[in-house]
Amino acid sequence: MQYLLLIYDDESKMAARDDAENQAIVQDYFAYTKALKDAGAFIAGDALKPTSTATSVRVRDGQRTTTDGPFAETAEALGGYYLIEAPDLDAAIAWAAKIPAAKSGTIEVRPIMVH
Amino acid sequence: MPTEDRFAQLYRREYGKVVAIVARILGGDLGRAEELAADAFTTAFERWPIEGEPENPGAWLVRVAKRRALDEQRRRQTRRDKSRAIAEEASLRAEERRARDAERSPNAPDERLALLFTCCHPALREEARVALTLRILGGLETEEIARAFLVPVPTMAQRLVRAKKKIREAGIPFRVPEGDELPPRLDDVRAVLYLIFNEGYRATADARLVRTELCEEAIARATMLDALMPDDAETLGLLALMRLHHARRDARVSGGKLVLLADQDRGRFHAEEIHLARAQLDRALSRRAPGPYQIQAAIAALHATAPSTEATDWRQIVILYGRLHALTGSPVVAVNRAVAIAMAEGPAVALPLLDALQDEPALHRYALLPAARADLLRRMARYDEARTAYAAAIARADQPLERAFLEEARAALPDVATT
Questions:
Q1: Dihedral through CA B394, CA B397, CA B402, CA B408, nearest 10?
Q2: Which residue of A has its CA nearest to B172?
Q3: For B209-248, how does the pLDDT look when each residue is reduced to its tens digit (9 = 90+)?
Q4: How many angstroms separate the CA of residue A92 from the nearest CA in chain B?
Q5: Is A67 helix (H, G, I), strand (E, B) or coil?
Q6: pTM over 0.80
Q7: How far apart are CA B419 and CA B405, in angstroms?
Q8: CA B223, CA B229: separation in Å to the nearest integer?
Q9: Which residues of B are less than 8 Å from A93 in CB distance?
């Protein structure tokens, strides 16, 4: 089964970290991604630029509305994702728990729709 | 000729087993497993009045349901791509062989263990875990569960449907967790069982019968868990704890009113159940793996075996509550510890402890805190303050029997004007 792991974390915390801390986190993510790949579970993954760079788009009755900002202003913002292959939810949860941001934020685990 | 009662009994006893075995064959599809299990029972209800009940009704039901499940799996596979079908036919044959061997072997894994862990999976919301466990493992009808939780039947039915959908769509696996995963998942299971027990334990004058059923169901599930995963100290502790509480069931309510432990007729305690629970607690403690359920069971054992309130070993209970608080940090435990200190050393010593807990956010709706303060103030003859505290407790009491008890206690306070 394929699962999307959505990474939510407090952006202000990120901004408050110094270079050394950020470098350490980057290393943690490299190691995590490598572990996913070594296990044959990695399909895709990326960090996203912060919500300050987001744009929201809606089309209603043929009218397009474009707004500055993310879909929802939340304390924890969507900061990245991994798309993984896992045999079941328990395996997906185990991977989610290892994501560095799981310690401070929340990882949402969503199964990919199969047609 | 099997009677309706007999069928109801059989259903309660065997439903979980049949569902579990079929779920294993169907790769965890609980919804379909329930349908096939229901079909097997329907067939039994139709055929047995004519053919007579088989010698081993449970095995008969399992056999019929298994055969239909294997046929169904086979049919599902032939609809898919041929090359996969060949590989899957081989695995189906292996499954059939395993199923036949399991029928003969006394050591076949009891699939109800996997079923219990699935029903109590943390990805399901708590109310869903409780409902699923009662419905599938306990064989309780949706209507019974709805009545027990004071929820409309369609709501409970929806809850079950959504939970099974989540299991299917999110890929919750049908398995017993292993390695590091197991301890926290065991905690989850115990928490569900204790929730079910507590729901049954809260006495209500009218729904008593259903409530006792919940307590007995929780004890039955914990007994099953202990049998299938033996020698787990906290599981034994939980089992002992529930039995000890349950052993006092006939003394807790009298004349439609709640009776405090101090006033309970100890002659109405079920001595054999207390004896059994203490043996289980001893077995738990001998594992030298202390935990919160074992400590609570030890406290309950001291209460259940004391000849009277006065003769209860309150000092030991204070020590046990202290250990429990150190383990859990629970403010509720702190309140209970203060109540025990009041018994061991007098109300004046304990009152400041309760006062200090009044601002605890976790205790905002906890009726026992103001109720305990009221009782201590009453014992110290501070009747006006006691009256105020009882009022606060009554405002928080959501249980009719509990509320009635507190109102009576308040009304029994001496009027300051008459003293």
A1: 10
A2: A89
A3: 557 889 999 999 999 999 999 989 999 999 999 999 999 9
A4: 10
A5: strand
A6: yes
A7: 24
A8: 10
A9: 123
